[in-house]
Amino acid sequence: MRTGVRTDPRPLLKPLAGILVCVVLAGILRNYPRYLPPDFTSDFLLGREASFQGGYRWAFYAHLVAGPVTLLLGLALMSVAVRRRAPAWHRALGRVQVAVVLLLLVPSGLVMSAFAATGVAAGLGFATLAVATAACAALGWRAAVEGRFAAHDAWMTRLYLLLCSAVVLRLTAGVAHLASLDADWLYPVSAWASWLGPLAAHEAWRVIRAPRAVQPRC
User: Fold this and answer.
1) Which sequence spans correspond to the domains of the chain?
2) What span, in angstroms and rounded, lies between the C-alpha atoms of 151 and 141?
3) How does DSSP classify residue 27?
4) Is the alpha carbon torsion for 39, 35, 29, 110 positive or negative?
C-alpha cells in the first residue's frame, strides 16, 4: 500500500471550472437582448436611467463586449493542450487577450465603478479589481516577452482568476436569490470577495504546493 502520495486535483478541477464558466457565461449572455436597447426594468439597469448616458453608456457596452471575449479567450489560453500543440495560436490569442483587457475591459470597468449601484464601498472594490487586472495583464505580458515563462504563467493565472470575478458575482447573486437574502451589505462585500477570495485561495495553494528547501543536516 502506497503512502505519502500527494494527489493533484487540478486535472479534474480545470475542466469542471471551464464548464462552470461556460454555463454561467451562457446565463449572462441570455440577458443581453435586454440591453439593446436598454431595458431599465432589467436587474442590472434598474434605476440607472439618469446615469446611462455619455461616458457610462459607452463604458457599459464596451464592458458588455469585452467581458465574454476575455473569459472565452482565457479558457483557450489556460489550456495546456493548446499551448503545447499550437504555440503560435497561444501567442496570437494572448496578444488579443492583453489588448482587450487593457484597452477595453479595464478602462470601462474603471468608469463603471464610479457608478456602482450601492455606493463607494462597492465602487472601490470594482476599481481596485480593474487596477489589479491591468497589472496582472501587463506583468504577464512583460514576463512572456522576456522569456520568463514560469512568471508569465503565474501572472496570467492570476489574471484569469480576476476575470472570473464576474462568474463568482453571478453565482453569489444566484445563491442570495435562492436564500431570499437581500441585505444592503451583500453587494459591496461581493464586489471585494468575488476576486479577493479566489485570488487568496490560489496564492495559499501555491504556497502549500511549493517545494520546500531541504535543510542541511548539522
Assistant:
1) 26-209
2) 10
3) H
4) negative
Q: What are residue 35's DSSP bridge partners?
A: 38
In DSSP terms, which residues pair with 38 in a beta bridge? 35
With cell 426594468, the residue in question is 41
Cis peptide before 198 (omega within 30 of 0): no
C-alpha cell at 53: 448616458
Helices assigned H by DSSP within 50-185: 54-77, 80-85, 87-100, 106-113, 120-145, 149-163, 165-178
**From first to last of its 218 residues, what are the pLDDT tens digits of the chain?**
455 555 555 566 777 888 888 888 888 888 888 888 888 888 778 777 877 887 888 999 999 999 999 999 999 999 888 889 999 999 999 999 999 999 999 999 999 999 887 789 999 999 999 999 999 999 999 999 999 999 999 999 999 999 999 999 989 888 887 887 777 788 899 999 999 999 999 999 888 887 764 445 54
Check if the beta carbon of residue 70 is closer than 8 Å to that of residue 101.
yes
pTM: 0.86
